[in-house]
Amino acid sequence: xxxxxxxxxxxxxxxxxxxxxxxxxxxxxxxxxxxxxxxxxxxxxxxxxxxxxxxxxxxxxxxxxxxxxxxxxxxxxxxxxxxxxxxxxxxxxxxxxxxxxxxxxxxxxxxxxxxxxxxxxxxxxxxxxxxxxxxxxxxxx
Length: 141
What we know:
Blueprint: E1 7-10, E2 15-19, E3 24-31, E4 34-39, E5 44-50, H1 52-60, E6 76-80, E7 85-89, E8 96-101, E9 104-108, E10 114-119, H2 122-125, H3 127-130
Antiparallel strand pairs: 1-2, 2-5, 3-4, 4-5, 6-7, 7-10, 8-9, 9-10
């Protein structure tokens, strides 16, 4: 069963989900508050972000929100303003990439496990959702 929209946001829990809406089986942590979701066949069907506003807003709205303190966690976040592309990666090497849903590209290791992902049109697709939570969750500078 397909989700009505591949991008959903729970304002109360500050969880952003990007999913095909396939037959969900389990999740695995990529790094920090970034999770990959898998279907019953073991294929990556999407991603979830816990504390999503804290992770996204400092990159999509720099100068308005402080970057999150991720401590010792191994998560690299890069935002390319010119292409409105936001990438998240752990330190594991990327072997290949594939589109999971439109504008959402999974980066996988040699075993086929997600080690990160890239979201195209980041500000267009998720910024309006995350700004719902901005005043309550994301730290301001």
